[in-house]
Amino acid sequence: MNLSTHRPVAVNTRLKTHQATVLIHLLLCLLIFYSLYYMIGSVCFGAFRLDHFDGLIPFDFKTEPAESNSKYLVNLLSLELTYFCSGLLFAAVVRRRVWDYALTVTLLHILITSLVMLEFPMVWQWWLALGSGLFLMICNGQLIAYFTCQSEQSYPSFSSY
């Protein structure tokens, strides 16, 4: 029996299993991200005592950026807290390469935001907040993943980054 004819099937099966795992992790990360966004947003709306909870909170980049604008502050605080907390939870789900999932979720968020608002975000304050939130998500998630999975043999050390 020739073993070389059976290798592609085994590699192909492993590849499909890996792709399915990545897709499931990505869907879980998106679910975590938007669930957290709405939960944190509703708490912030209540804390700032705003009259109307806006269901578009994760996608709203059109609110006038000003310190005196409570809705803008709620949007900003919700975004930053969501990114901070998401990184911690992503580490629990994916256990490695949190940066990859954080970046992918952020790119999908930009795409979904553009589709929901029917406009590409051009507000520099929104991009600055998004970038700083992404930085927080990656740093928190990678640190948590590193320290919780450090005992695993298969987890890469800092030297491999």
What is the helical fraction, as a range of percent? Answer: 55-70%
Unreliable sequence segments:
none
Shape: globular
Cα radius of gyration in angstroms: 19 Å
Number of helices: 4
Major sheet summary line: none
List SSEs in N-to-C order. Answer: HHHH
Structural key phrases:
161 residues; mainly alpha; 4 helices; globular; Transmembrane protein 244-like; transmembrane helix; transmembrane; Integral_membrane_SYS1-rel
Structural account:
- This protein has 161 residues and is mainly alpha-helical.
- The mean pLDDT is 87.
- Helix 1 (7-47) packs across helix 3 (98-117) and helix 3 (98-117) packs antiparallel against helix 4.
- The longest helix is centred in the first third of the chain and has 41 residues, at 7-47.
- 25% of the residues are buried.
- The protein has one domain (9-150).
- The protein is globular, with a radius of gyration of 19 Å.
- It contains four helices and no strands.
